[in-house]
Design brief:
Helices cover 88% and strands 0% of the residues. The chain has one helix and no strands.
């Protein structure tokens, strides 16, 4: 293999490596954003369930029912 060909192949590998590293950074950012959104949705779900439970408990108490 000639020196020129080896230099070209090395340059192609370097370009591919840079592309892969940029993709990894992008994927890491996207994963972090998705995890944040998941956390927010989980907190919202827990809050809604808590509010619904509190509402049901108050309703059962005012109607004289045993809730638990």
């Amino acid at each position: 293999m000639s020196y020129h060909r080896m230099g070209f192949d090395l340059e192609m590998l370097n370009m591919e490596h840079k592309k892969v590293m940029l993709d990894l950074q992008k994927f890491t950012k996207e994963i972090n954003e998705a995890l944040y959104e998941c956390k927010e949705l989980t907190e919202e779900t827990v809050s809604c369930r808590s509010e619904n439970f509190q509402h049901d408990l108050e309703q059962a108490t005012t109607q004289g029912e045993s809730f638990l």
